[in-house]
Amino acid sequence: MPNGGSDCCGTCWFNSTHEGKAGYFDTPPDAQVRCVIRDLVIEEPFWTYCPNHPHHNPEKLSIPIGPVYRDAGGYPYRREVWVESPDSEEIRLQLLRLLETMSENPVVEYPSSPQLDEAVIDQLMRFGERRAVPGLKRACNFDPLATPIGNNPFERSRAFTVAHALEALAALIGDEALPELTWGLTCGLEQARAMLDYDLQKDNLAVIRYYSVRGLSHCSPERSREWLLQAATDLNQEIATLAKELLATRKNGV
Question: For residue 114, is the peptide bond before it cis, meaning its omega torsion is within 30 degrees of 0?
Answer without folding.
Answer: yes
